[in-house]
Amino acid sequence: MRKLILALFVLFVTVIHCTYAASVSVSYTITPEVLLPGDYADITLTLTNPTTKDVTVNSVVLKSNDLKVEPKSIYSVGTIPPGGSYSLSFSVKANEKGRYNLEVDVSLENGSLTQNIQIVVDDSFPSLVITSPLYEGEVNDLKFYVSSPVELKDVKVEALFNAVPKIAYIGTVYGGAEGTFKFIPTSDTLRFRISFYNGRNFHEVVKVVKINLLKAKDVELNVTPPYRSLFIGDSITIPVEITNLRNDEISGLTVRAKSELGTFTYPAEIAMLQPGESKTVDFKFSPSKSGNGNITFILTYSDQFGNVYTTKRSFSVNVVDSYAVKLTNIKVNREGLQTSVSGDVSNNGRSTVYNAYAVAKCGEYRTDYFIGNIDPSDFQSFDLPVKCNRSVLITVSWSNAIGESFEIHKTVDLAEELPGEVETSNLPLIISAIAAVAVVTVVGYIVYRQLKK
Questions:
Q1: What distance lies between CA 121 and its chain's CA centroid?
Q2: Number of domains in the chain
Q3: Within this chain, do residues 208 and 232 fall inside the same structural domain, yes or no?
Q4: Which domain holds residue 74?
């Protein structure tokens, strides 16, 4: 109500005030219209002759018990011609809040007149209010509104706390104007220093504003593991969704993964996330040993002031004591004096096996077989010629999707299988002799029959 009355008064005094006597009229303007305690007001008094004859002004005297007036009187003003005017300026100073009356007595050659000027001194402006919600623990766009019932010039608002910018330049305020700071709240009370000119009077006032801090949300890591049971040497893809639930933008996001059971691809980086924005990054995990353990994802990011934050998300996995690749259907094959070992390489994992290779070693003897890629739940066969008389070591090596290399081994005993280890037998010679005798007997019989004829 008080500000409404003050505004109505300002509207009233902004109009040029006029008082008429028989031979002269008096009008005045006040700058500024409303004073703060200690302000000077500059008043311009204009005397106008509306008649068709000269008017002589003897003196102008200003009277007030509560205001400091400079000058207090002006004598020998002179003659104002018909239709002419004369202006004179003076200033008043008020030290206390209140409403004051300034009496202006104009002495004319043929009479006098009195003009009363009301001076208003108020200490309630300018005001400052916060217009945006504020959240604890994050960078806020603090929006404020400065209001004044009179025109203020060169208005600056300084944040008396850690904020960017430190000073907001508003300029001219008449009615109201907005400004913005960026800051992280550390208290529920904010202090501002407002500097401005009211007319030719410079002021600095400190405003203390009580704020209500809302509970802030964090950056969320959403991890959905596709499998909880894994094979050694396999590779699985784990998607990680990062959502910025804060009300400020964050930047320099880095997501790392770690586990005592295996290795991951390189950390993933995201340049920036706006409030409410989400992005998904994929990690590939390669188990290297069996056991129960945790997979942990660690996110680090920075706010607009360079403050670094960290958040984590973990889940448990089980790596069984078995490789994703297996050797099956191992056989020893002989054809004449040639011996080979064959078998199947099965991929029991959930990702493709790359560059599978089978190698047979026996002493210094070595032979290999390139198998190639094997899809999940598929197999490829190999056949390795060997020249050994006891045992051969079969090794299958491969790489998974992140480039980790693994190998499995199997020893095949050939001690009782190769021809060089089989005992000598006379049975083939006996069979050959019997066959030869039979042939000779048949041939001799045929010849005998021919001779007898």
A1: 49
A2: 4
A3: no
A4: 2-121
